[in-house]
Every structure is written in C-alpha cells, then in structure tokens.
Amino acid sequence: MRGPLQTQWLPAALLALALGAAGCVENDQSIVIVGNFSLDGNCEAPIAGGRIRPRGRLDIGLAANLNRGYYMVPRVQNLLPMSAGMVMGGMMGGQGMTPVEMNHVWLVGFEVDILPDPGQPITEHLVPGVPGLTRLNIPYAGGQITAMGGSTTGPVEVINPNAAALLLNSRAVRGGPSTLAEPYQTLTVRIRARTLRGGGIIFSNWLEFPIEICAFCLPTRPDQPGVSAYNPGSGSLFECPDAPVPQETLLSTCLPQQDEVVSCCLKDRSIVCGKQIPHKSSQS
Predict the structure, then answer these.
(1) What are phi and psi of 65, to 5 degrees?
(2) pLDDT value for 13
(3) What angle do CA 220, 181, 161 make, to 5 degrees?
(4) Considering only CA atoms, which of 92, 69, 166 is closest in space to residue 127?
(5) pLDDT band with cut points at 50, 70 and 90 for residue 280
(6) How far is CA 280 from CA 253, 265, 269, 277, in A?
(7) Which pLDDT tens digit goes with each residue over 54-113?
(8) Contacts for 121 with CB less than 8 Å, ≥ 6 apart
(9) Residue range 40-54: average pLDDT?
(10) Is 13 exposed, middle or buried (0-12, 13-18, 19+ CB in 10 A)?
(11) Measured between alpha carbons, how far is 184 from 164 in angstroms, rounded to an integer?
(12) pLDDT at 116
C-alpha cells in the first residue's frame, strides 16, 4: 500500500536484471491487471477491495501548474499455480538442495501507450509512440506477488506533467468546463505490467483506460462552491478571496489535477487547492 505521490525505484541490481532479462513471455492470462482503482479515504491505494474507476479526467491546467500528471492505480494479480522447485544450497548455509516456490513474481515496471482519439485538436500534438511522452517505460518497485491469486495495487503516473504542459501551451484545449457544443476531448491510456519470474519477464494483459482532457475544468471557487474558478479573461483561475473562507466550504481531493471537482484559486501567482487555500475553522 503506497501513497499517491511516492516515487518508486527499483534497486540497481534488480532493475538491471529486469531490463536485461533474456526471456520475455507475452501475456498468457497468468499475470493480469484486474482494474484501475480509486485511492481510499487516506489517499492510499487499497490493499484489497476498493472502488474501480472506469474512466478518468485530467485537468491539464492544474497538472501543468502543480507539476503532477495523471495517476492510475492498477491492481496486478498473479494467477500462476503453485510450483515448487529446488535450488542449490541448504538452509543456513548448509549443503544440499532448498525448496523454493517458482511461480512467485516481482512487479518491476509498467509499459504505457497514450492514444488520442482521432479527429480532435489534441491529436496532432500527441503523436503515438514518442518515448517519454506518449510511450512510457516506467520502473516500479511493486514487490513480490505470490502465486495462486496474490496481488498488489499502487499508483502509477501514466500521463506526465510534460504532456500536460505541451497540450496547455498548444491551446488545443478550451478552458473551463465542457459545453454541449464543445465536449471534452478524449484519449486512451493502454497499460501493461512487467513482472520478473526467475530470469525472464512475463507481461500482463493490456488494460485500456479512457481519459477526458480539459483545462481548468475541475476547480470551483472557494467562496462560491459549484461555480467554476476558471477566469476566461486571464486564461487561468480567479484570485483567492481576500478573507479566509470557512473550512467546510472547501472541496479537497487526494489528486486535485484529476477526476474530482476541487476548490482552487490563484494566490501570489501560484495555484493553491483544497486546504492550501487560506481558510478558517467553523469554531473561529
């Protein structure tokens, strides 16, 4: 279980083995991504259970300014059967053979492709297959996933802030909430897990996840909940209120740049959201 913004790096030796493994096995439905999950009330990935999120929304205005991309929370499950094997070397440094489970795997990374839907303004700016932009190879220290149904769930940044800034600067996305005349543009994130078993790599299935793209569509005004905080005159957000607002009127989320409406405003030329906005408690 990991928080949403923790960077996860593989130990050097394990990463080298993972990237240089000779044998690669395409998905045989033994390693599967079972879904994309929402973070829980503590802003952590659920160990088990949880709510599947079927689609997402990325606010590129917030993402570029907060330097945070879109995070998926995939759950990777190992459906391989138990398979005992033997290795040289006895227990406690003794001689002989030691029994080991051969079908436990290590989650060592994710591969991501970003595919904008055709015929949209963003399509010409997000060319598929560009390394580091629309094709990502992400090292990930997901730990061991045991055979016979073991799983792990954790956050992965599948659209990075550079892609968000590129789209924002291109002006290919209209600011503010969508309208009937101009709905949100969409793209599909394809993601698969890379696991290490013995000396070889096993890939999971590809999971396809649709994401709507908007610019400053999620923020609501802290002093007027439900009213868009987008300022079309400046192309950014309205300034924060002069006086602190009641805390109970603020909407906070784990990841303000995505999925949920959130209170945001401009303070000292920087965007602040949720409880970063000057506020007062109901008792004050």
Answers:
(1) -80, -30
(2) 41
(3) 50
(4) 166
(5) confident
(6) 18, 16, 22, 10
(7) 999 999 999 999 999 999 999 999 999 987 654 555 555 556 555 577 899 999 999 999
(8) 170, 172, 173, 185
(9) 94
(10) exposed
(11) 15
(12) 95
Neighbours of 117 (CB within 10 A): 13
Reported as half-sphere exposure (CB side, CA atoms, 13 A), residue 255 has a value of 29
CA distance 182 to 277: 31
Four-residue CA torsion sign, 218, 221, 224, 227: negative
- What is the spatial distance between Cα 147 and Cα 85, in angstroms, rounded to a whole number? 13
d(CA 198, CA 182): 51
Predicted confidence band at 2 (pLDDT cuts at 50, 70, 90)? very low
Backbone dihedral angles phi then psi of residue 249, each to the nearest 5 degrees: -90, -10
Contact 36, 223 (CB under 8 A): no
- 260 CB neighbour count, 10 Å cutoff: 13
Residues 6+ apart with CB under 8 A from 102: 83, 84, 85, 197, 198
Give the contacts of 93 (CB within 8 A, at least 6 positions apart). Answer: none
Instruction: Please give the angle made by the CA atoms of 43, 284 and 238, to the nearest 5 degrees.
Output: 60
- DSSP letter (8 states) at residue 13: H
Please provide the average confidence, as pLDDT, over all residues in the chain: 88
Neighbouring CB atoms inside 10 A of 280's CB total 12
Half-sphere exposure of 167 (CA within 13 A, CB side): 34
Which one has a higher pLDDT value, 271 or 99? Answer: 271
